[in-house]
C-alpha cells in the first residue's frame, strides 16, 4: 500500500508546482516510506509515496502505459494481477515493470471503465488520461482504502488522507458541524464525506471521472446482491462449508502473493482463527502471527490466541495493553484517523501494527468481514428477535429472547428488566424501515450529541447520512430477506466508513503495514450473499457454515465460542486517578472555549462524574460521549495547532528522502515530450 496525492488544474489555471506536490506527499510518508515519485504536465501533478510489496525493483510510481498517454498513482494491491497480466500480454500489451500497478493502465487501455469491476483487490486509483484530458478517481468495492478530494477554485486536489490536502496549502482545514454531529450518532460521517468542510470522500465501489472542465461524473460500478440463489437453496451445512472453504482458500492464496513475508492477526475469535488455519494449510513455511492482550481481564483473550497459534503452528507475537498504553497511543490514532472516535478500540490496533513493523513484517491477513457477510453480529439477532416480537407485541415470552444476546453487556439481571425490554421495543413495529436493525443503536449513540456545542447540534442532520446510504439501495433490495437487508446496512453504513478506516487502514498504515482481508474477496462475498439464510443464522445460532468449516481445522473451544466483540477499555483507561495530563488540558474550560465545538457545562459535568468514579461509568453511551468529546478536542488541537509545524517537519524529511521524478513538460503526450526517467536525487 502507498500514499497518493495530486492536483488537477483547470484549462486556464496555473498547474501545480513541484513544491506543492512535495508538501502534499510529505504528509503521507507513513503510508509509503520506501521512496517518492512525481509526474507533472500542463494540467496535472501526481505524487506518490511508495510501500514496496510487489515488484520491489523498478516499481516506482507514477507508472505509465507503452506510449505514456496514461499515468497512474495507485494505492493498494490487485490480487489477480498475474491473471490479468497474462491476458493483456496475450492481447499485445508490453510491460516494463513487474508491478500490479502497471496492470491497471494496460487494462484501462484495453477495457476502459469496465476495468474497475475486473479488479480483485483493495485500491484507490488516480489515473490521468492525457489524450482525453480526464482524471479518474476510483475506490475498491468495499472502500478498504481511502481517497479524498476537494474543489478549490480552478483546481481539484486529491489524496489518500485529508492532511495531504491541507499540506499542499490550497485547502484550509475547517470542520463541518453537520458531519461532526453524524460521527456522534453513526460513529463516522456518511460514506461520501469527511468531518472537514468541503472535503469529500470517493465512495466505495465508485469511479469518478473528472473531465476537462473539472466537472465530476460519478458512476457506481458495483453493488452487492443478496438475492438468494435457487441453485444453493438445498445446500446442506457441510456442502455450504465446502464451498466456503474452497472460496476462502482461493482468496487467501491470492493474498499470500507478495515479494515480502505475510503474517496473520489472531484475535482469539473464530474469524481470524479460520484465516490463520487456512493460511497455514497453504503456506507451511515460517509464519508470524500477532495478537493484542489486555491487562483488564474483561477484555483479554490471551488464552484463546495462544491456543490457536499453537494449534496452527505460527510464531506468535503479542502486546500487553494497559490504560497507559491506550493513553499514549490515542493522540497518534486521532492524528492518523482524522476523525473523532467514540471508542478507544483503534488504539490497541495501532500498537499492534507497530509490533508487526518492528518484527519486520509488512503484510498481515485479517478476519474482518466475516461477521458482516456471514451474520455474526448480535445486531442481526436483535433484528430477528424484534421482528418476532413485533408479530405479537403484547407477548411476555418473546421479549425474554433478548436475554440470549449481548452476552458481554447488561449483566446482573439487567437483561430481564422492563427497562432493557423497553429499550428494544421502541420503534419495534416499523419493520419495513430501511434501517430497522440499526435504528436502536443509532438512537442510543445520538445521546452523545448533547455534549456538542449548540451550533453543532443545530447543524445536525442525521437524515443526511441515512439518505446518502439509502440512495444507493441495490436494485434487488425489496426482494431480500430481513437478514440480508440488515447485512447490507451494516456493510455500507458501518463496516466501510468506520471499521475499515478507524480500525483498519488508518492504524495499520500509520505504521506502514498493509492489512489484507480474505473475507472481503469478491468471490467469497458473492457466495456468502447467495447462500440461504439458514446456513448463516438459524434461530439465534450464528455463522453456521463458518463454524462447520472451522470444526475441521480448529479446537472445539474456538469453534463453539460465542461471538465476543472486539473492545478496549474506554473511560476506565482515560479518567480518574490515572488520567493523563492531556485529558484535563483538552477538557479544561479554556480549551473547550477555544475550539467552540462542545458544550463546556455538559462536558464538565460528565467529565467530573467520570473522574469521581475513577472512569467506571454506568452506561456505555456516557463512555462513548466522553471519548468522542475528548478525541474531537484532540483533532481540533492537531488541525489548528500542530499541523503547520508537522507540514514543515515532513517537508524537511522529504528533502532528505529518495525521490523519483517523472516530469513531462510538453502540452501533449507525443514522442517529442521530454521525459526525465526515474532517478534518485542527491541526499
Uncertain runs: 665-683
Q: What summary fits the major beta sheet?
A: 7 strands, mixed
Helix content estimate:
40-55%
Task: Please count the helical segments.
Answer: 26
Mean pLDDT: 91
> How many strands in all?
20
What is the CA-atom radius of gyration, in angstroms?
Answer: 25 Å
- Tell me the strand percentage band: 5-15%
Strand arrangement within the widest β-sheet reads: 10-8-9-1-3-2-20
Shape: globular
Question: How far apart lie the N and C ends?
Answer: 24 Å
GO molecular function, one term: ATP binding
Active site: 2 (for gatase activity)
Domain Glutamine amidotransferase type-2: 2-213
EC number: 6.3.5.4
Description:
By secondary structure, the chain is an alpha+beta fold. 42% of the residues lie in helices and 14% in strands. The strands form 4 sheets. A 7-stranded mixed beta sheet has the order 10-8-9-1-3-2-20, with helices on one face. Strand 18 and strand 19 (541-542) form a beta hairpin. It is globular and about 70 Å long. It starts with a strand and ends in a 20-residue tail after the last strand. The relative contact order is 0.14.
Amino acid at each position: 500500500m502507498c500514499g497518493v496525492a495530486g492536483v488537477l488544474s483547470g484549462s486556464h489555471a496555473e498547474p501545480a508546482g513541484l513544491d506543492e506536490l512535495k508538501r502534499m506527499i510529505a504528509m503521507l510518508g507513513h503510508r509509503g516510506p520506501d521512496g517518492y515519485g512525481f509526474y507533472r504536465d500542463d494540467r496535472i501533478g501526481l505524487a506518490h509515496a511508495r510501500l514496496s510489496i510487489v515488484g520491489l525493483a523498478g516499481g516506482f510510481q507514477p507508472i505509465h502505459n507503452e506510449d505514456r498517454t496514461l499515468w497512474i498513482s495507485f494505492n493498494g494491491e490487485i490480487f489477480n494481477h498475474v491473471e490479468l497480466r497474462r491476458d493483456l500480454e496475450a492481447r499485445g500489451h508490453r510491460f516494463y515493470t513487474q508491478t500490479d500497478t502497471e496492470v491497471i493502465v494496460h487494462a484501462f487501455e484495453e477495457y476502459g471503465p469496465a476495468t474497475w469491476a475486473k479488479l480483485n483487490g483493495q485500491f484507490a486509483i488516480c489515473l490521468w488520461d492525457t489524450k482525453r484530458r480526464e482524471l479518474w478517481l476510483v475506490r475498491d468495492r468495499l472502500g478498504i482504502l481511502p481517497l479524498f478530494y476537494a474543489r478549490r477554485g480552478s483546481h481539484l486536489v486529491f489524496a489518500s488522507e485529508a492532511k495531504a490536502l491541507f499540506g499542499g496549502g490550497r485547502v484550509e482545514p475547517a470542520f463541518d458541524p453537520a458531519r461532526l454531529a453524524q460521527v456522534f450518532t453513526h460513529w463516522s460521517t456518511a460514506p461520501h464525506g469527511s468531518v472537514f468542510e468541503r472535503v469529500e470522500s470517493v465512495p466505495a465501489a465508485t469511479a469518478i471521472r473528472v473531465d476537462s472542465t473539472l466537472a465530476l461524473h460519478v458512476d457506481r460500478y458495483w453493488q452487492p446482491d443478496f438475492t438468494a440463489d435457487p441453485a444453493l437453496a438445498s445446500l446442506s451445512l457441510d456442502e455450504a462449508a465446502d464451498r466456503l472453504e474452497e472460496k476462502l482458500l482461493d482468496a487467501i492464496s491470492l493474498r499470500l502473493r507478495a515479494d515480502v513475508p505475510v503474517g496473520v492477526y489472531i484475535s482469539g475469535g473464530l474469524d481470524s482463527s479460520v484465516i490463520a488455519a487456512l493460511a497455514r494449510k497453504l503456506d507451511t513455511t515460517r509464519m508470524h502471527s500477532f495478537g493484542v492482550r489486555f491487562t483488564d481481564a474483561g477484555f483479554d483473550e490471551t488464552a484463546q490466541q495462544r491456543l490457536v497459534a499453537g494449534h496452527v503452528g505460527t510464531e506468535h507475537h503479542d502486546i500487553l495493553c494497559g490504560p497507559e498504553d491506550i493513553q499514549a497511543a490515542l493522540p497518534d490514532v486521532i492524528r492518523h484517523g482524522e476523525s473523532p472516535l467514540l471508542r478507544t478500540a483503534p488504539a490497541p490496533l495501532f500498537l499492534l501494527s507497530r509490533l508487526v513493523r518492528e518484527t519486520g513484517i509488512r503484510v498481515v491477513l485479517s478476519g474482518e468481514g466475516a461477521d458482516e457477510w456471514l451474520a455474526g453480529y448480535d445486531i442481526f439477532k436483535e433484528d430477528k428477535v424484534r421482528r418476532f416480537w413485533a408479530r405479537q407485541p403484547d407477548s411476555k415470552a418473546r421479549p425474554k429472547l433478548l436475554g440470549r444476546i449481548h452476552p458481554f453487556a447488561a449483566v446482573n439481571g439487567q437483561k430481564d428488566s422492563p427497562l432493557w425490554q423497553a429499550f428494544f421495543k421502541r420503534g419495534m413495529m416499523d419493520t419495513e424501515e430501511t434501517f430497522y436493525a440499526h435504528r436502536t443503536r443509532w438512537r442510543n449513540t445520538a445521546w452523545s450529541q448533547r455534549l456538542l456545542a449548540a451550533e453543532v447540534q443545530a447543524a445536525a442532520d442525521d437524515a443526511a447520512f441515512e439518505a446518502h446510504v439509502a440512495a444507493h439501495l441495490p436494485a434487488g433490495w425489496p426482494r431480500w430477506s430481513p437478514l440480508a437487508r440488515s447485512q447490507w446496512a451494516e456493510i455500507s453504513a458501518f463496516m466501510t466508513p468506520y471499521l475499515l478506516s478507524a480500525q483498519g487502514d488508518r492504524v495499520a498504515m500509520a505504521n506502514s503495514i498493509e492489512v489484507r482481508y480474505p473475507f472481503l474477496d469478491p468471490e467469497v462475498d458473492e457466495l456468502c450473499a447467495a447462500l440461504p439464510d439458514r446456513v448463516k443464522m438459524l434461530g439465534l445460532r450464528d455463522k453456521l457454515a463458518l463454524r462447520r468449516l472451522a470444526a475441521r481445522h480448529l479446537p472445539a473451544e474456538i469453534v463453539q465460542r460465542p461471538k465476543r466483540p472486539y473492545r478496549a477499555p474506554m473511560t476506565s483507561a482515560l479518567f480518574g486517578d490515572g488520567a493523563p495530563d492531556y485529558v484535563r488540558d483538552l477538557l479544561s474550560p479554556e480549551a473547550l472555549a477555544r475550539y467552540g465545538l462542545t458544550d463546556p457545562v455538559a462536558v464538565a459535568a460528565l467529565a467530573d462524574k467520570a473522574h469521581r468514579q475513577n472512569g467506571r461509568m454506568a452506561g456505555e453511551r456516557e463512555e462513548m460521549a466522553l471519548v468522542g468529546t475528548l478525541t474531537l478536542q484532540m483533532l481540533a488541537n492537531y488541525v489548528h495547532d500542530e499541523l503547520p509545524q508537522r507540514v514543515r517537519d515532513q517537508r524537511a524529511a522529504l528533502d532528505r528522502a529518495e525521490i523519483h521524478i517523472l516530469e513531462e513538460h510538453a502540452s501533449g503526450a507525443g514522442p517529442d515530450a521530454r521525459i526525465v526517467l526515474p532517478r534518485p536525487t542527491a541526499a
